[in-house]
């Protein structure tokens, strides 16, 4: 597969997959009824932020694939699996504690990807920094929601 063919495939996989999972696991009534921390963003913020992040994630994945960096590529696939697992765990199964475990693993995997690519593929590492910051915030939000709504 050529470089020019691979990038659109990465974009479709990541952006399309992320948006599809987001659509299937819309927050709904259960989420609306939860007690939320004061720093909880309005719902409309999530779709544009995630769309931008998914584009950055796709480009970083394409870049490590194109350069044949096997360990960073394994980390990239792991973070994508964890990313796609979080929403069904949180919204679909309504398991905030398990979702917290998933997102902590995601955060660690993102940090590992940044570390693994920092010297070999700096652009990919930098593309993941906004993702790391957002997932760190989302981890705090998940933990706060779990804490506020524990029965």
UniProtKB/TrEMBL annotation:
- MF terms in GO: kinase activity
Protein localization: Membrane
A single GO cellular-component term from the record reads:
membrane
Membrane-spanning ranges: 44-62, 74-91, 97-114, 126-148
Question: Short name of one Pfam family for this protein?
Answer: TspO_MBR
InterPro entries assigned to the protein according to its UniProt record, in alphabetical order: TspO/MBR-related_sf, TspO_MBR
What kind of membrane protein is this, topologically? Multi-pass membrane protein
What keywords is this UniProt entry annotated with? Kinase, Membrane, Transferase, Transmembrane, Transmembrane helix
The alphabetized list of GO BP terms reads: tetrapyrrole metabolic process
Gene3D superfamilies in the cross-refs:
TspO/MBR protein (1.20.1260.100)
Q: Which family does it belong to?
A: Belongs to the TspO/BZRP family.
**What is the protein's given name?**
Sensor histidine kinase
Organism from which the protein derives: Phyllobacterium endophyticum
């Amino acid at each position: 597969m050529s470089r020019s063919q691979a990038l659109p495939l990465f974009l479709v996989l990541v952006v399309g997959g992320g948006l599809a999972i987001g659509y299937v696991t819309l927050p709904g009534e259960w989420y609306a009824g939860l007690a939320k921390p004061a720093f909880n963003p309005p719902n409309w913020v999530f779709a544009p932020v995630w769309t931008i992040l998914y584009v950055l994630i796709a480009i970083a994945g394409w870049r490590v694939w194109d350069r044949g960096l096997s360990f960073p590529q394994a980390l990239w696939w792991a973070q994508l699996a964890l990313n796609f697992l979080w929403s069904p765990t949180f919204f679909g199964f309504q398991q905030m504690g398990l979702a917290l475990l998933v997102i902590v693993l995601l955060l660690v995997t993102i940090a590992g990807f940044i570390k693994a690519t920092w010297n070999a593929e700096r652009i990919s590492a930098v593309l993941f920094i906004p993702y790391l910051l957002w997932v760190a915030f989302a981890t705090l939000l998940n933990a706060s929601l779990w804490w506020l709504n524990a029965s």
